[in-house]
Amino acid sequence: MLAGPSRTIGGTDRRPWTFYALGALFFGYMVFLYGPMAAIYVLSFQGENGGVTFPMTGFSLVWFADIVKPGQMANVPDSFGRSMALAAIVSVITTVVAVAAGLAFRRPFPGSGAVFYLAVASLVMPSLLVGFGIGLGFRLFDWKASLFTSGLGAQLTWTLPFGVLAMFAVVNRFNRSWEEAATDLGASPWQRLRHVTLPILMPGIIGVAMGAFTLSYDEYARTTLTIGQKNTLPLEIYALISSATSPMLFAIGTVTTGLSFLIIGVTVTLILRMQRRRAAATLKVG
Amino acid sequence: MDTRFDVELIETTKRYGTTTAVDAISLRIPRASYCCLLGPSGCGKTTTLRMIAGHEAITEGDILIQGNNVSDLTPIERGTAMMFQSYALFPHLNCLDNVAFSLKMRGVNKAERHAKAREYLALVHMQDYAMRLPSQLSGGQQQRVALARSLITRPKVLLLDEPLSALDPFLRIKVREELKRLQRELGITFIHVTHSQDEAMAMADLMVVMEDGHIRQSGPPREVFERPVSPFIARFIGGHNVLPGANGKIAVRADRCRLGVAGDGPFVSGRVTAVEYQGTMVRVAMATDPGDEASALVPDGDFYARPVEPGDPAILTWSERDVHMLAEA
Lengths: 286, 329
Known about the structure:
Chain A is mainly α. Chain A has helices spanning 17-43, 62-68, 76-104, 112-120, 127-140, 147-172, 176-184, 189-217, 221-224, 233-243, 248-285. Chain A has 11 helices and no strands. In chain A, 27% of the residues are buried. Chain A binds chain B through residues 175, 177-178, 180-188, 191, 195-196, 199-200, 202, 279, 282-283, 285-286, and chain B through 53-55, 74-76, 80-82, 84-86, 88-92, 94, 96-97, 101-102, 104-106, 110-111, 114, 118, 130-131, 149-150, 153.
């Protein structure tokens, strides 16, 4: 008979105490990470007369209704719309530039080192100062600071280097001979990109796009000084916190979290369906 | 226009900066032959293959395929197809779409290209795996698909970069028989890069031994084995003892050497360093007194009649008619 895999030399299969110590540490970390969020989700269902702290005085959905109620000092739905629009544009621009840069940097070119450091340097710049500088620049030239000009630019200083770095990691796993094989089989440079390079890199590209989207969606420091008159959602929430607090803030948190999961779910479903359809299409012909 | 040759290299050179990877080599590969480019790593054999394929620009010289100068053409215009060492199957496409890829690039409609791809999958006995993704196949199966994908372009010359190196030894022998059979049936030239002299001798019609960016010897394997031109060739293709002779170096095949006593014939004395049982033969490795390494391949019956152990003194003998003079020092 063969010895089972759990059988160890020395005859003991008890775990060392360090296993339990590290396990406890990990559990503590998880509580620290998700506990506050859980508290917020629970408190967003606070009773009508309840406050921003425990205990719960009941269960209600009034705080969710408050979000969309007009006449409040903040306009959450509008700022949410602006945040989404800005994040979408930032995500598209970041992805296009990151893919191009990732493919270009596979081979060193004259000055590639300098270009690289210049591109990623803004990651280490103090974010508030970057925003301040852009705001000053717009004022200097008498341009109107707004969401899709100075705001967009300020956010790109953050998402672009991030996207480029992430894309480097994606491209690193790309086997160059796939492209050579495509050329060998008669693909033009465009066909090679369209039918081989991009499809193979697609999971990574989607990751970069979603990363850029989230970075933009909750960006605060750079945005606050460059946004002009109208707020994005994080700025709106911050304004709410500093003026009046109510469980409505928690309700916003719950809704945005739900929305994030929805976006992730839809994306994953789309990808899976795309793959299934591709497989089905080939089966039909066969 | 000379069309007796499928591939002609004319003073073909590849330089990277100041390093010369391939130094003005000239080679003519006759119609429908199986050509093996053989040599130690870094000898320029893969660079040569990639230049023929059009994946590496030629620094100087020309490459002709069936009489046409293809030096500035793309791979598909050259009529070559390459099978990559890692096979380079597209991981996001199933076998059928991998094989149909070149037809898709030419704009062939789906029904037609899939029908054609099935034909070529059948040629390599992979028709039952058409819907599988490459990651769901074994190395040997991936190789068949890669082969079908190359052959569907109907190349004049098929280029294979170390096609057997990723396979286990048992499969390797099976696949090399199959490659050779395919080459005969298709009647096109295969150029196969390898560092294994066994492989080259088993498969090649034309064996080209390279070293240091130069072609050191080319010819049918039997000619190269029987008449190696230099100590390098004799050592590299194996099975030879390179020993000092009266007028420079000589080569004697190890299977023509015997262990025995000094007599009228040529001999060298030394000490046994290793004994390897190889089934039908036993290889006895020796360090000769003049300081060379030599070995004798002795039939197992002879060996066990008079066995030796490492450390024993021994005398290596051979016959004068088995001596082959080597041209270079």
